[in-house]
Amino acid sequence: MTWFRPKMLHSFALASQGILLRLLLGAVCLAIVACEQSSPPLSPSSPPSTSEQRASSGQDQRSTRVDQPRIVAFGDSLTTGLGVAPEESYPARLQRRLDALGYHYRVVNAGVSGETTAGGLRRVDWVLNSRPRIVILELGGNDGLRGVDPSETRSNLERIIQRLRAEGVTVVLAGMKLPPNYGAEYTTRFAGMYPELARTYDLPFMPFFLEGVATHPGLNQADGIHPTGEGYRVIVDHLVTVLEPLLDQHPTGGS
């Protein structure tokens, strides 16, 4: 092994000190740069900027909306608002209508395009996770268009209703009808299950969700099934008359 001479040790010590000094200086420089790049928090006396005020206002509004009791629109593409802008869907229009009438509720759009009553039954727990006060149940149309036996559709709707009511949720049932080309027997059985369920469970009932819309081409999109934005306005006009007595029964605030 080679031993360092005293002069070599002295040179090595000086070199080590130089390296250490450069490292320390580098760390100080990095700390200074970091301090310059970060903005200090506003003190209580510092007025926020205009953009900060707008952001704060928006957050307050969202916070207020989140704290409001919820109405969940639970349905298929007629609830989703297929083919129209989101703000033209019936849940969005209902939200604006309730706001204008002075009701403090948050409307949640839980529609899924193509949804059947079987799919809705699988989603009940997901709907309940939003802790709704009221659920507007609009399902069954896709069952009918697919030729599902009305007894099966009725059973699924009944189980959905039972599950929601077991959690203290008020269920508003929206009825549906089919075009006559599906046959008199089938369409009669299909349409009849909605008022039967409404009577059995004493539900607030909208006899036909598309009342005043289905027979008016100008209120429907080219497919003849889904309403236009104006068609959804008509639907909300009818729906509000069913909802208002329920809203008066619920205090504002909370979910």
Topology:
Blueprint: H1 6-37, H2 50-67, E1 70-75, H3 77-80, H4 90-101, E2 106-111, H5 117-122, H6 124-128, E3 132-138, H7 141-145, H8 150-166, E4 170-174, H9 184-201, E5 205-206, H10 229-247
Task: Describe this structure as you would to a colleague.
The structure is a single chain. The chain has ten helices and five strands; from the N terminus they run ααβααβααβααβαβα. It is of the alpha/beta class. It has one domain: 3-Layer(aba) Sandwich (Rossmann fold), CATH 3.40.50. A five-stranded parallel beta sheet has the order 2-1-3-4-5, sandwiched between helices. The longest helix has 32 residues, at 6-37. It is globular, with a radius of gyration of 31 Å.
In a nutshell, what does this entry contain?
The chain is α/β, with parallel strands linked by helices and 255 residues long. 53% of the residues lie in helices and 10% in strands.
Kindly provide the radius of gyration, computed on alpha-carbon positions and rounded to a whole number of angstroms.
31 Å
Strands side by side in the biggest sheet: 2-1-3-4-5
Report the β-strand fraction as a percent range. Answer: 5-15%
Total beta-strand segments = 5
Q: Please tell me the overall pLDDT.
A: 81
Low-confidence stretches at least 5 residues in length (pLDDT < 50)? 1-58
Helix and strand run: HHEHHEHHEHHEHEH
What form results from the Cα inertia axes? globular
Looking at the overall shape, the CATH architecture is: 3-Layer(aba) Sandwich
Tell me the distance between the termini. 80 Å
The CATH class? Alpha Beta
**The CATH homologous superfamily:** SGNH hydrolase
Whole-number total of structural domains: 1
